[in-house]
Amino acid sequence: MRVDARLNRERILTAAEEVFGELGAQASTEEVARRAGVGVATVFRHFPTKTDLVEATLVRHFDDLVAHARTLATAPAPGPALGDLVTAMVERGATKVTLANLLGAADQVPSGAADAAQRLRDAVDAVLRRAQEAGVARRDVSVDELYFLVRGLTQAAAALPVPTAVSRGAVAVVLDGLAAKR
Amino acid sequence: MRVDARLNRERILTAAEEVFGELGAQASTEEVARRAGVGVATVFRHFPTKTDLVEATLVRHFDDLVAHARTLATAPAPGPALGDLVTAMVERGATKVTLANLLGAADQVPSGAADAAQRLRDAVDAVLRRAQEAGVARRDVSVDELYFLVRGLTQAAAALPVPTAVSRGAVAVVLDGLAAKR
DNA sequence: CAATAAGCGAAGTCGTCACTTCGGATCTTA
DNA sequence: TAAGATCCGAAGTGACGACTTCGCTTATTG
Predict the structure, then answer these.
(1) CATH number for B110
(2) A61 and A88 share a domain?
(3) Do residues B95 and B60 both lie within one domain?
């Protein structure tokens, strides 16, 4: 692959992340191209369909979160680690959830995104289990439920322009409900 | 207004509720017309823009919830009433939230929907305050946060068909976090 | 029951957006 | 450094969806 091609690919991904974050998932491919400083044809050469572009953006984002989760899985304090993870997912994912919605709306869920989501699920699972074994998280909560909660918080946060006292408070309530009963 | 016009209006609203619930917010107006058994022109005569149609559907749904909330505001047990309300909003609203997203994406938030949302907020506020005064809900939670949580849970439930057990579990966690500390 | 006003649907128009084509510019390698 | 492969952007194309027009139908009213 030529160096200019690789550079453009990188520029497109970065632009897609910005544009979809600001304009929402229905932003046009042409807007992404404009922001990246390339022609539309270049975008389509790298990502044959719009779904491919969205998928690539999502996978990149998910893998970031996976790395973060794996670090937290070996952190000294399992309880705060779980809290950190939830907060990070909500705040960093806020702009990306609309993308996931677009993907969900498509008839077929692309395998690449599904794989990345699975990796993230597993990493979150590890953090949760560790907190449960340390006795600082309810044992009757499954990853599915935690995932559901995080997804919900993230989606609600995405509606707001900036993380606010309200979203922080809501996260606090959930973390409190997640904590082991005293 | 002629009786056939009123009947058609009713049919259109019902169809819109179904279609947007099943196909998502980006479903076409023509699909709504087909489902209602009328021509597209009829839909546009009753609701000049698609936004108007979405708004009308939302207002109807919100007002249903407002009625429910007002009933619960005078229920004998304030704690379970709050739980009931949250559950009802999440489960009944699941198909409707995508509509709210579409509205939010539009440049202008129609005043009608904003008013209905305000009425709902006030009704929920009443139920929450009553639970707090009865000492069964945390006092450091505001309506804003509760609303945020419900919105998130509903959106997550709407996004993809989730097993009821999972959404119920997640709601339980939130309600637990909402309960007064022991 | 006839006149009339309101309502209705079929067949458009217009703009937008995902995706393609092709002639020219640019990087690579011998 | 020059041949040649690779990459690029400007200008399409075709489909789809929001919204309009108009001739016909149907409910209302004196």
Answers:
(1) 1.10.357.10
(2) yes
(3) yes
Q: B3 CA to chain A: closest CA distance, Å?
A: 38
Chain A residues with CB inside 8 Å of B167's CB? 148
Instruction: Please count the CA atoms within 13 angstroms of the CA of A176 that sit on its side-chain side.
Output: 19
For residue A9, which of A56, A61, A64, A58 has the smallest C-alpha distance? A56
Cβ-based contacts of B83 with chain A (< 8 Å):
none
What is the CATH classification number for the domain harbouring B39? 1.10.10.60
Q: List chain A residues with CB under 8 Å of B170.
A: 145, 148-149, 152
Residue B105 has a pLDDT of 54
Rounded Cα gap, residues A13 and A33, in angstroms: 10
The residue in chain A having the minimum alpha-carbon distance to the alpha carbon of residue B168 is: A145
pLDDT at A154 over 80: yes
Domain check: are B87 and B11 in the same one? no
Distance, CA of B86 to chain centre = 11
Range of the domain at A39: 1-48
pLDDT in tens, A106-134: 555 667 888 888 899 899 999 999 999 99
Q: Do both B81 and B11 map to the same domain?
A: no
Q: What is the pLDDT of residue B100?
A: 66
**Whether B69 and B152 share a structural domain:** yes
Residue A28 to chain B, least CA–CA distance (Å): 14
**Unique residue bearing structure tokens 């998928």:** A55
Q: A126-151: buried (b, 16+ CB within 10 Å) or exposed (e) per residue?
A: bbbebbbeeebbbeebebbbbbbbbb
In the predicted model, is pLDDT for residue B30 greater than 90? yes
Q: pTM of this prediction? A: 0.85
Tally of domains within chain A? 2
Same domain as B112, residue B61:
yes
With an 8 Å Cβ cutoff, is A143 touching chain B? Answer: no
**Residues B56, B136 within the same domain:** yes
B88 with B143, same domain: the answer is: yes
| A118 CA to D27 C1' distance (Å) | 61
Which of A16-30, A78-92, B19-33, B152-166 has the lowest average pLDDT? Answer: B152-166
* pLDDT on residue A4: 87
User: B101 or A150: whose pLDDT is higher?
Assistant: A150
Q: Which of A133, A10, A147 is nearest to A65 (CA)?
A: A147
